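Supplementary Methods, section 5.1.

A reviewer requested that the exact input to the structure prediction be made available. We therefore reproduce it here, unchanged from the version used in the analyses.
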Amino acid sequence: MQIFDILVVHAHILTINADFTEYRDGYVGVKGNRITAIGNSSDLIDYQAKRTIDAKGKILMPGLVNTHTHVPMTIFRGVADDIVLHDWLMKYIFPLEKQCVTEEFVLTGARLAMLEMLSTGTTCFNDMYYFSDKIGQAATEIGMRGIISEGLVDFQAPSFKDPDAGFKYNDFLIEKYKNHSLISVGVASHAPYTCAPELLERTEALAQKHNLTHHIHIAETEWEFNKFWDEHACSPVQYLDNLGIISNRTIAAHSIWLTDEDLHIFKNQNVGVAHNPECNMKISSGVARIPEMYQAGIKIGLGTDGPASNNDMDMFGEMRSMAFLHKFVSGNPTVIPARQALRIATMGGAEVLNKEKEIGSVEIGKRADFIIVNTDTFSGTPIFDPYSALVYSIGSHNVTDTFVNGVHVYQNRLFPFSDVEKIKADARTLAILVAQKLK
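The structure derived from this sequence is encoded token-by-token as follows.
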């Protein structure tokens, strides 16, 4: 007899495993925080389940993996739009962060972002920001999986007065979350142009010591690319590789302005690329060479970036934008087909975060991180290909249920364990303070 804590039946299951196995009328059984059974509903005969959920007319698929975020920046959503990146950072965001970012700001902004992500199908995120312990607290409260990392820079930041204090904060995070079921800790250098070589090397040494991911913005703009050629006679990627920063722990956010040699380095070092198409389009940073990277076997995941520069955290929208962008730019409608886009947003993201053994697909033994999407909708009628429907038409507003680590955190479009109205009210209160600083 099979015994389940949660049993989902009559779902159209997209596993996103190596063979893209599907079950048109399938079931998924969960015991504790793991998936313990998958199959055709008609084969389910000898079992007991504490809870059974009928998902007829719905798709069950892995939760989306957001590989690059700054989740507390929901409070800055819309404060500085339609501005080039360098001015956006230096004239607006860095000054606002200095004046506004506190532990309360981070906790509230993170809570709001997690409600947005879970309700739109994301079950895991990879974050770089300040006061990251509060991001970990928010994720623990709400029940979301994430990698948190304290963004290190050469200048004073909201959570530390100098890099030494930042490294002490990292040590605290590593110790606090070393056995956590939802939260992993990584390290983060903001970018090669905001971090001295010594800081970059010290951060990578910490990553090596504890086998952590190293999250960093790389080659995001033409300005950055030209700066390193002018000052170092090499690209940002080559500069970092010469310092010994590039490795299989690297999560390279954006990675737009890359040379052929840079692609070779990424492939050889098994780097993970966090692709952020909507943010890149909005700030007009350029178009990453994603089809070439995919063809070369470079690990690629999808990310929203922060809600101050995107301005949402909707990974379904990001999938659609990614597919359309690369078809348009390449002049080839066959690049990034829907099935590939869905894999990049799930299993691809898990590979970028080095978590492919735990998440990214619906398989026996993996963490029970999955979502249920309603297809009995105008945009879901008819369906000839479920991958096409999910990427091009159905949309995140049709996500009805989200499970993380075996917990049903979003149930029939409601959050049973979170005070949604208080979180929104707290965010609006902080936004008033931000607006006063803008005057």
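The domain at 2-62+367-410 is CATH 2.30.40.10 (Urease, subunit C; domain 1). These observations are discussed further in the main text.
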